[in-house]
Structure formats: C-alpha cells, structure tokens
Model the fold of this input.
Amino acid sequence: MTEYVTEQFTPQERATLEPFVSNLDGPVFALTNLPEAVKGAMFARYSRTTKSLRRLFLDEFADDVLRLGTAEARGRSERAAGIYERVFVEYGDDSVAQLGGVHLACEQSSQLLAKALEWGRLAAYLEQSTRYMRYDDKPGGRWRATVPAELEHTPLGDTYAAFLDDAFTIYGELYERLEPWFKERFPKQPDDTDFVYRQTLLAKTCDTLRMLLPAGTRSNLGIYATGQSYEQLLMRLGQHPLAEMRDYGELMLTELRSVIPEFLKRVDQQERGVEWSDYWKAVRERTDELTHKLVGDIPPEPRASVNLVDYDPAGELKVTAAVLYAHSALPDDQLLDVVQGMTDEERAEILATSVGDRGNRRHKPGRAWERTQYRFDVLCDYGAYRDLQRHRPLTLEWQRLTPAFGYDVPAAISEAGLADRWDLVMTRSRETYEAIAAAGLPDVAQYAVSMAYRIRFVMQMTAREAMHLTELRSQPTGHPVYRAVAQEMHRQISAVHPAIGAAFTHMSYEDVDLERLEAERRTERKRNA
Done:
C-alpha cells in the first residue's frame, strides 16, 4: 500500500482542527462546519503555499474562525466575509467562486422557468416528476400553474385563466376515466403487491396525461451549484424576456446572498454583471430582429421527427486514431495517416478493444470516442423534449414553443375513446396562444401551449454522449416518445458509422405496455431487502 507522511500536530492543534476536518491524519479529508466563504478562501490560498491544508488553517485562518465561534462559523458573518475578501483580492475571482456551493430549493417554477434554470452545464438538478403526481388539485385555491405577470389584471389574463380551468378540469376528468381503463387492460399479476400495482398504474396514467398540461404548469426543482455557476445563471435570468425568469432571479439572489454573499458581489455591479447581462440581451434582440428580417417569411419544409443533419464521414477513422493516441508517442495527424493505411480488420480490432466487454450501459469507452460528432434536428412533443433537454453536456438549442407544428395524441387516449376531450384542450391551447401572441407577446404566449404540442430543437453530441443518451432514453421504463427519438438516433448513427453504432450494445427496442412495472418491482425487492 502507498505510504503517506503523517503530519504531526500538538494536542492543542488537534483540538482546534477536530471540528473542521473529517479526520486528522489521512491524506484525504473533508472540511466541515465552515462557511463557504472560508472554504473558498482556504483553497485559493492553498494553491500558492507549500503548507498542508490543515497547517494552513491553523496558521492563517483558525484565529479568525475561532473568534466567530463554531456555531457562527457554520453560517455567514462579516468576519467570514472579511476572510474571503482578503484572499479574493490577491487570487482573483473566478477560481475562488468555483470553490463554494449551495443546495437551493426552487419551488413553483413553470415548465418554461425550469428549462431556463437547467441551462447551465456545471450544476446538478433534480426536478419534480410529472410521472408520480396528479395535477387536478388546487393548493391554495389555484391550479398548479404560473399566471404570467405580463397578463395579470388584463383581459388576456382572464382568457388564460379560463384556459387553465378547462385544461386542468379535463385533466382530472380523463384521469378518473383512464386509470380504470388501464386497470381493466392490465390486471394485477399475482406476484405483485398492491403497492407496486398502484404505483405502476399511477405512473402509466400520469405519464399519458402529462402532455395535456400547459407549459405554465408548475414544478419544484433542487439545484446544487457553485458560486460561479449561480452567478452565470442569475445574469442570464436578469436579461430574460419573460418577467417570471427575471423576478425569480431576484428571489434566488436574495436567498443565495444570505448564504454565500461574497461569491455573488458582481451580479448587480454595473461594470460587471449588469454590463454582461446587457451584452447578452443586445445580442439576443438584434439576432432575433435580423432573423425575422431575413428568414421570417420562409415556410419550414416538412421533415421527419429525427434528422441527422451533420456528421463527419471520416468519424470512425478519427475515433480509431484517437483510441491509439494516449498509448502511443505519435502526433495526432500522423496517427490518423497510419490508421488510414490499416486494414479493415485492424481498425475494427482497435475500436472493439476500446469498447471492451460492456457488462451494462454504464460501462462506456473513453474520451477518444468524443473525436466525432453528430448533429440532430428533432421535432417532438414538449413533454419528451423536457426529458431530453436534461442531457446538458451536449449542445442543445431550441426554438420558441408554439402550436405551429401540431400535437401528439397518445395511443391510449384514442383507444380509450377520450380523443375528443384531448382535442378540445389542444384547441383551447392554440386559441389562447394565438390571442396572447396577437397582442405582441409571443414569448408570454408559450405558457398556454400544452406539452403535447411539438417543439423543434437541435442536439449536437459526440459519439460517447450519443451512446449514453440513446441507451439511457431507449430503456423500457422511459416515455414512448423520447424512446422513439433515441431509437431513431441510433438507427441513423448506425447507418453512417456502422462500427460505432454496433458498440451501442445496451439499446432497447423492446415493446412494453406498463413502462414502470419492472422498475417498481425492483424497488419493492430492494425495499424488502
């Protein structure tokens, strides 16, 4: 076993350190009971000293922290802010702002706001699932939906409110009719518990009906991010065209400043955050104006739901060369020439070796598989888009949500004889959207678009990310719409790069009726164990 030097501390020093580190002797330890500002400052100072972090704490931070008192040290204080500022001035801002983070609850967010909050790549998000909860109740006497501030106290606000009444009322009606229909079609199996069966039917019914809900439907999110990631998010929200995003950004800034104020000083400084937001806003507005001027009158041509619009014909050769790169001493371009001169069998052996024996879909080849990319243009319902949008490492951009591309009707809705009520909500959604958009508020009109309506978006990804996305989203537990998107992506990748497509060995093309049944059974077995 590797030997490490054990640093020596006096009994008094050990007593000082004990509340603030997870262990006193090992080379790996966590910081505890310290404000984010102090942790960020310590790590920044750590980068320019030969001292260990424990010794650095004792020599340069302990006196200040101990004067705070352990209880106060857990939160924010002026003295903690002073510690941060002292290091901030010397070591710069961005690197220090990456070293402290906050868990933030963001509740009662519209679906549109949720997508804006989840834009950043360098953060962790957990969103309330529409799969396990009904939306026909009225907490606080109102539907679970955002009424845009732009519409409040206007006739259009009344139009929108009337649409919400129709949409959520019909959602409740259809739930009461659809769940018994599923129960009759999929009887409980003798080996399943009542709990597993109920949860499976709940998921099936909610999964089918969630596309009926408008984009204004509210959700709860949990976010964990660094100070720097929050700073970027708040600046983006500050220049957003929708009032909900701007107002929510102010709420977030207030709460984050109660925890990590030192990390967010630049957000509303004129020469930093304000100018940055103004720059983004100016680019967005000018690009929007130019787009409407140059291509606004061109009608969209018909396309399939999934289209591979760009890829590198030499992608497999480049991935093959990239596999060899870290194991060789050759320059990148020379390796590519060498690989081009190999036989098909030799190249196939290299790719197969880089993939290895994938015991499950979490086993993925290395970064050499990021050497080639695929760009897909996708048109699918907004409900499925919400799940696909969560793949943040790839490049994803979407167009404004409108009813222009039509809507989907789940097969179960038609088979259960409920399509007329579904169509009624879609009609009301389109009428409400058109009324709001006609008033010069196309961005606000998105709140009224039901999630069954289709949205166009582009997804650009490496072969490595494509393997992750298509295998994950094709699994039987997934929603049928995004399963179909993932399966079609795999087919089109396989058509242009057969060896790469063949490595996606955990794709699922299996037909299932109760998507969550096996997952609920597995959970029940774990619960019992």
The beta strands are 101-110, 123-127, 218-226, 306-311, 373-381, 395-398, 454-462. Residues 106 and 221 are 5 Å apart (CA to CA). The first helix runs from residue 11 to 17.
